[in-house]
Input
Amino acid sequence: MYKFDKGITLLINGWAGHNSLADALAIWCANDLIFVMMAVVALRWWQIGGYPRMRHSCLVAGLSFLLAVGINLLIALFIHRIRPNDAGLTQALIVHSRDWSFPSDHAATSTAIAAALWFQDHRKLAMALFFAAAFICVSRVFVGVHYVFDVTGGAFVGIAAAFIISKSFGEDNKLSRQLVRIF
Output
């Protein structure tokens, strides 16, 4: 399995450093696209009409994001996978944190946001955010700081986190009803 993961990672990262426009786009996606996704959710909080339902969905997305980070932190206590660039396998285009490679926090959190909105039946918005999450995942491999299985594992964590929050934090929840009235 490692050979397969390594091979795909090298294939994707092999494109790095050959085209400055592709490199710049990948760097932006790897570092900053998650903030655009969070801004989209924050702006949807204030959309006109449909406040309680959309606001509840924004809460679910935020809680899913946080749960995904928490799950990743727990996994990192037990799985210590060195990043591919630290192992001398890939060329890193960005400076990254000194934590373990598996699972990818960026993949987990971006996918959690998209999946949360999917589970809340905001399918069009969720699909757009799934595309953004996919760009984030691929770019993290492209820039050389994750293996393909790192981002795949992170994406599964994000989907699981969104599913858990969506099923346990319903619109009829008293806390949700109180929080959607903020601002």
